[in-house]
Amino acid sequence: MTHEPMIGGIAQTPLDRSDPLLRPGNTNCGGCGMSIGLNMLSRAIGKRNVQIVIPACCGIVTAGPFPWSAYGAPVVASTFASAAAVATGLSRAANLQKRDTRVLCWAGDGGTYDIGMATLSAAAERNEDILYFCYDNEIYGNTGGQRSSATPVGARTTTTPKGKGRQKKDILAIMAAHRIPYAATVSLAHPEDCIQKMEKALDLRGFRFLHILAPCPTGWKSEPAEGVQLVRAAVRSGLFPVVEVEDGRKWKIDIQPDFSREELAFYFEHQGRFRKGFFDLDEIVREIQEHWEELEEKARRTESAY
């Protein structure tokens, strides 16, 4: 296993672009959606210089023990709540030093939807020059699988053994409301769209936000080999819309679902966190339809205005 020497939590040599962002031999679980996302990001980064801030989450465990790192880029470990604040400091320092460096946050849903929301919102409101990735496995995966506000209705976690009773927070709408330059959802089952969005976000300036649905076989009680298929089912059924928003006003639907009930049923039936009687598929179909009516109306308004 190849590791990067670190001093003070920051790798001391630049990323060799022949070296992947996520190195072989890391401790991530098989089938981890976060790992897939990191490999996609590695392809998107190309020859760009990057620094990454990772709060408490599975992603920072990936790095391994000090003084080594399984990442092929400089990484700063932040507290759970402060990833966007730490990234702000790095971004402003790079600007003062006139370095062409892209500063990224790589955070789970706990550090984004919940504990990190205050600094995330503040950095977005100031339009800091940060690219923020949320790999969303819909639980606090690193600490045993507790409920987060990203957990979908009906999902059983260690703190919702009878299934969560409330809908998932609409993080993309929240970020779009900040009128940031770019926000988008990313499907790991559609690599061309995924990498294109990552490259676009890397090249833009100001605050950018990418939301990735990241399967967690451990927390989802699913087969590691089925992760990408589960994401594809979520996209086809309309459960996970693949869209992008520019300046909080220009909405675009990138992948049109066919609203397949069969794919939706596959998604729920192939995860042990969902059990019959713990969720109502008809109610979920109705909620998907209502959400898509809103999204399509936003896209129509964009087409007529621009």
Care to give the gist of this entry?
It contains 11 helices and 10 strands.
Topology:
Blueprint: E1 6-7, E2 10-11, H1 33-45, E3 49-54, H2 58-61, E4 75-77, H3 83-96, E5 101-108, H4 110-114, H5 117-126, E6 131-136, H6 171-176, E7 182-186, H7 191-203, E8 208-213, H8 217-220, H9 227-236, E9 242-246, E10 250-255, H10 261-269, H11 281-305
Helix pairs in contact: 1-7, 3-5, 9-10
What do you see in this structure?
- With 306 residues, this protein is α/β, with parallel strands linked by helices.
- 37% of the residues lie in helices and 16% in strands.
- The chain has a single domain (6-305), classed as Rossmann fold (3-Layer(aba) Sandwich).
- The protein has an 8-stranded mixed sheet, with helices on both faces. Strands 1-2 form a two-stranded antiparallel sheet.
- Helix 1 (33-45) crosses helix 7 and helix 3 (83-96) packs parallel to helix 5.
- It is globular.
Helix content: 25-40%
- CATH architectural type: 3-Layer(aba) Sandwich
- Detail the poorly predicted runs: 1-15
Broad shape: globular
